[in-house]
């Protein structure tokens, strides 16, 4: 009998245990972030369960509404947004919420306010829902100096001020990847326990990767340096092998693969979207934070992504 393996199986590092361990590294901490994260985990479990039942429970299809970008919302988008807003408000640890699904920021009732701002995309990649492709929730957490007087301007912080970020991928398994600024760890939902168990400790992106990930259908609108770079991935001039192309079109899944297998994920600005399609506060910042914490890099094309200062919540 392999006792070492058995010990591993019975000494489970749940996400709560991990976050409490992290908290104990900060003796001044009152556990606010731990409580907030446990509410985010609850939201992820709810969405995971809804995504699993989506076809059966008739949760796919349109909800008959459009979101800020003018896209049709799916029923699951609406549901996930409601779940996260309720979970975050009821945590008592947030003062303002910025959701990709809502046109305006939600300022929490003063009686329920805490010191954190959470920016989130409750269900990213939702155009993939109806065909069962992996989708995910993305979130970034910031500290607000004065919760009683918080304004929208205070929400527009550069990504480098984020204190924690993560995503939950609803795929062949449900995986939550989290960083509180001390490396990146991945947890897989054990459905029989209803707990996220650490399965990917201290994730580090491989220093070299053989995969590039981009929507090449946009190539005719790219600028010359981008087009040249992608051409080199396919036709290297240094004698190396061409890279493989993998593109799911669901950022959580594409970034998750990039973190684990290495390589590059890019969504370049083009003539159609001169500032790029990806949304800074909900997609670019949290994913760039995780990439950097895992030893990788993230650039806008002009500089470090996390140095950007958003001008609006869209
Ligand atoms: P949806 O949530 O509308 O599906 O958008 C997802 C997304 O923002 C991101 O998750 C993908 O990386 C990107 O769009 C895919 O965009 P293209 O379909 O233009 O390749």
Task: Please summarize what this structure is.
The protein is an alpha+beta fold.
What this model shows, in words?
The chain is globular, with a radius of gyration of 20 Å. With 314 residues, the chain is α+β, with helices and mostly antiparallel strands. The chain folds into 2 domains: 15-202, Fructose-1,6-Bisphosphatase, subunit A, domain 1 (Fructose-1,6-Bisphosphatase, Chain A, domain 1), CATH 3.30.540; 211-307, D-Maltodextrin-Binding Protein, domain 2, CATH 3.40.190. The protein has helices spanning 3-10, 15-24, 32-52, 75-90, 152-155, 224-234, 251-261, 280-293, and strands at 62-66, 72-74, 94-99, 106-107, 116-124, 135-143, 164-170, 174-179, 185-190, 195-200, 211-213, 244-245, 264-265. The protein binds 1,6-di-O-phosphono-alpha-D-fructofuranose (AFP). 1,6-di-O-phosphono-alpha-D-fructofuranose binds next to helix 7.
